[in-house]
Design a protein that fits this description.
nine-stranded mixed sheet, alpha/beta, globular, 14 helices
């Protein structure tokens, strides 16, 4: 491909342009340019500078007449005028035009009937390696005929001028649904590229009757597909990478009339405090070709220290799906047998597992609760923070939430898919007063959901939240399933439960016009 091929995007390239380099070349270029260092096992570790997570206050959507009424305007989707976008775009094009560039042509979406051709232009070799490992790669024949439907222009070190570009800071993620262009700058965090395309799919797919989901998915030998919804740090990647089940994908999927399919061709896992014993599949996937972000690496031995959080709690690893031996090659599966909502509850209120009615499923989907200790957003602290992220993915939803909630309800009803809530955080006692729920217990709960053991259990009803909690399950500590889940102080637990219920109720008040049956499915104080 001639370097002049970027002229169609407005880039008059005056420096070398590297088209679709293979992994080894991208690793070599990244090391040669000082963008990262190799670890003892050959993974590339890059530092992202001051922004070690997403910058939600810096996301913009161009407000145009043809899409104005379809966008969920507000904190998530801030409006940018077409005139401002053009000024920003021209400045980005001028900046990129004098720099060495790396171009990736590939796809988002494993289902060939709806796959989205994309092009990502970056100034860093390691960013191009990241997208090559995260998105779906094109074959040589597909490359020859590749015509991008969407283009991401990533000028990581370009700094916006808030006065000139009318931004909130020097960083920006600007989506234009008319020109089908994403502009990214002022941040080197690679996750912004991944999530910008997810935002695009969240806008385009509902019009095709496909439900886009922020979830992981795996499948058992009997074809039983499980979906895991949850925010960062709740266990989507960990629980989907199950040695006894095949991995469809770890983060983003679509649910069509044919079944579930992965949007991506790779995984993007948190690796803080990771160990081979706890997450063997992910551990083994961090090898040559994988990308680490902001991990502390010994300068002599080049051994990563995954327990260190001096740079950020949000340390990350990215690797292609074929690095997981149990991955589904085509990224597709049937209709799900079960849906699991994950919450890492640092307040120690939620049970290890609960069964939800369809109305409760809608309530908790719209709530999107977790209370974790650190996340993927810049400047998030280490103290427990309650988070309600609509549909478990508010930062990536261009359309109003009721669109996605309605699609989930429709899919669950048509395919008779049950829904469960699972706490991957602290049970009974809050963070600092007890251990986190062991991963083997989480895995046993998932196994009991899928083999029917949980549905055959005897249940009790939580007096505040109203969901059904099994009285006993094999392999789950009895105190976890008892009333108050083994809390040291019963009265103090009851107060925590009421406090959390109040937070749910306050958050849900934003959803005016929600059917009364769904409102009544929430907690009561």
């Amino acid at each position: 491909m001639s370097e002049h091929g970027l002229e169609q995007h407005g880039i008059a390239a005056k420096a070398p342009v590297h088209w679709n380099l293979p992994v080894a070349r991208l690793v070599e270029e990244a090391v040669r340019r000082g963008e990262g260092v190799l670890t003892d096992r050959g993974a590339l570790n890059a530092l992202t500078g001051p922004r070690t997570g997403r910058s939600p206050r810096d996301k913009w959507v161009v407000e145009r007449p043809d899409t104005r009424e379809q966008i969920w305007w507000g904190k998530v989707n801030q409006p940018m005028s077409p005139e401002t976008f053009e000024v920003l775009r021209n400045d980005v094009l001028e900046y990129l035009g004098v720099r060495d560039l790396f171009v990736f042509d590939g796809f988002a979406g494993a289902d060939p009937r709806t796959t989205l051709p994309i092009r990502v232009v970056t100034e860093f070799a390691w960013h191009s390696l990241f997208v090559r490992q995260l998105f779906r790669r094109a074959t040589p024949e597909q490359l020859a005929a590749h015509v991008p439907a969407w283009t991401v222009l990533n000028a990581a070190r370009f700094r916006a001028d808030p006065a000139r570009h009318r931004t909130n800071s020097e960083a920006f993620i600007a989506l234009d649904f008319t020109s089908r262009t994403v502009l990214i700058g002022g941040t080197e965090y690679a996750g912004e590229i991944k999530k910008s395309i997810f935002s695009v799919l969240n806008f385009t797919l509902p019009a095709q009757g496909i439900f886009p989901m922020h979830c992981s998915a795996n499948v058992g030998r009997a074809g039983d597909v499980a979906l895991f919804f949850g925010l960062s740090g709740t266990g989507k990647t960990t629980l989907s990478a199950d040695p006894d089940r095949e991995l469809i994908g770890d983060d983003e999927h679509g649910w069509s009339d044919a079944g579930v399919f992965n949007f991506e061709g790779g995984c993007y896992a948190k690796c803080i405090r990771m160990s081979r014993e706890r997450e063997p599949l992910i551990w083994d996937a961090i090898r040559f070709g994988a990308v680490l972000e902001n991990v502390v690496v010994d300068p002599v031995t080049r051994i990563p220290d995954y327990n260190q959080d001096v740079i950020t709690e949000n340390t990350r690893c990215a690797y292609p799906l074929d690095f997981i031996p149990m991955a589904v090659p085509d990224g597709m599966g049937g209709h799900p047998k079960a849906i699991v909502f994950l919450a890492a509850d640092a307040f120690g209120v939620l049970p290890p597992v609960a069964r939800l009615t369809p109305e409760q499923a809608m309530y908790h989907f719209m709530s999107g609760y977790t209370a974790a200790l650190g996340g993927t957003e810049a400047n998030m602290g280490k103290d427990p923070t309650p988070t309600f992220s609509t549909c478990f993915g508010a930062p990536f939803l261009p359309r109003p939430p009721h669109i996605y909630a309605g699609m989930l309800a429709d899919k669950m009803r048509r395919h008779a898919t049950p829904c469960y809530l699972m706490n991957s955080g602290w049970v009974g006692n809050p963070y600092g007063q007890g251990p986190r729920c062991p991963l083997p217990v989480n895995r046993r709960c998932v196994a009991h959901i899928l083999d029917g053991t949980l549905d055959r259990a005897t249940f009790r009803t939580d007096p505040v939240f109203g969901f059904e909690i099994p009285v006993a399950l094999p392999g789950v500590p009895p105190e976890f399933l008892a009333e108050r889940h083994g809390a040291r102080d019963a009265a103090e637990y009851d107060q925590r439960s009421r406090d959390l219920a109040g937070k749910f109720i306050k958050n849900f008040a934003q959803f005016e016009g929600t059917p009364e049956a769904i409102v009544r499915a929430g907690p009561r104080i």
